[in-house]
Amino acid sequence: MGKIELKFIRRLFHMDRKMDEKDKPDKQPKRKERKNDEKTANREENQTAKNLCTNQKLNVNPRNPLNSVSQPQSHQQQANSTATYSESSAEAMDDSGVPDSPLNSIQESPAQNPVKMERVPSTSDLPVFSSQFVTQISSQSDPGPEKALLLATASAAFGHGGNAPYNWQATKICVKDRLSYLCNTEIMADVHFMVGAPPHQQKIPAHKFVLSVGSAVFDAQFNGPMATQEDIVEIPDVEPAAFISLLRFLYSDEVKICSDSVMTTLYAAKKYAVPALEKQCVEFLKRNLSSDNAFMLLTQARLFDEPQLAALCLETIDKNTHEALQADGFTDIDLETLCCVLERDTLGIREFKLFASVCRWAEAECTRKNLPPSPENQRGVLGRALRLIRFPLMSVEEFAQGAAQSGLLEDKEVVKLFLYFTVNPKPQIAFLDVPRCCLTGKEQVVSRFCQIESRWGYSGTSDRIRFMVNRRIFVVGFGLYGSIHGPKEYYVTIR
């Protein structure tokens, strides 16, 4: 009943208003026209709002998320639109009191037309971004506040230009771990190196600060008065694997070298003045030095000016001269290294065997120089090394069967050497006669048995060979007969 009375009074009020308006015919058309215009504008705004609330959905484009994110209204725009809707709803009342505004119908049934509430992204959202997306947004002259916020989020998640996960720093407990994580990555890299010779070049990223702290050469290159301004620095004389080993050491003090990369890593350490890495490389070579690689390492040690390593190589060659000369690396050495070895007085080998190895080196050198291995060419590539061979230390038989028939010596040299062996006083010759390791004269062999049967028994006591001499001798070697029942261990003592 109360509702009916109120409605009746409200209708009377409207009737009175209509009667008053009839008394003012001059203002009625203008007022009615203004009201219709406002109604039309409000209906258009309400319809637009309805369409936005009903049809707008967040459509994220994975290639460019910013183009698909709708722009939220500002607080001032929201306040204005709310006031407009309230006024239009009051004026759009018909005589029955039912609003004809689309917004009112939306407010009456919110479940049918839910409003999609959007939130401005923040750095805590951690979306997935690509480098193409960051580059595209950065290239915009005025991306706007929302896109700027997304760009900051993208930069944080993308690792400042790299591909690192967000907050990777939290998983590294010390500076060494964090710097090791940055090694050879694009994360915050401010310089790139094109390492190696074509076509095996490799582009390696790095950080100027870390390199300048660990190397005076890098410091001068990036911070000196003649500092380079190039973003990509070419290094054609260093192997990529060796340069990465150098970077790993500068970033984390970690040394990862092998027999295949140790020499190239040593060269890189020498070039960029990193003595700690040089020492690690030399220690590695010392631990792996043997008669098989002694000549190869000697060549490299002389090239890199490592006198300590060179001395160890020469000592190994002195103790195992025959094995070292038979190794494949001997024929690959350069002429200066060959001369350095031939000048030594401590080589443990007979001179005629040394001469045969030198002839083998001369043949390999002729091949490298695309020359036929004739005696004349071999003598030419040997140069002064031929004068370092001590022919007077050979016996007459050894010289006659080997060097005299090789063709490397001239006829007058052969004649003088034969006279040296046969007559007194001995003539002057152009070859040294200083003994090597006191190994002179003819080798003698002492056998325990004059003849050897198929086998003999062993009683458990030590077997001995005793002999007496009237001059100083050198025991060059000895041989043992083993057991027929399989491998055994034997111990030998020379007194």
TrEMBL record:
Biased composition (Low complexity): 79-91
Residue numbers spanned by region Disordered: 10-117
Keywords: Cytoplasm
Ranges of biased composition (kind: Basic and acidic residues): 10-47
Record's GO cellular component terms: cytosol; P-body
SMART domains assigned to the protein according to its UniProt record, in alphabetical order: BACK, BTB
SUPFAM superfamilies (alphabetical): POZ domain
GO process terms (BP): neurogenesis
Polar residues composition bias: residue spans: 48-78, 102-112
Gene3D superfamilies linked: 1.25.40.420, PHR domain, Potassium Channel Kv1.1, Chain A
PANTHER family: BTB (POZ) DOMAIN-CONTAINING 2B-RELATED, BTB/POZ DOMAIN-CONTAINING
Protein name as annotated: BTBD1_2
High-level lineage: Eukaryota, Metazoa, Spiralia, Lophotrochozoa, Mollusca
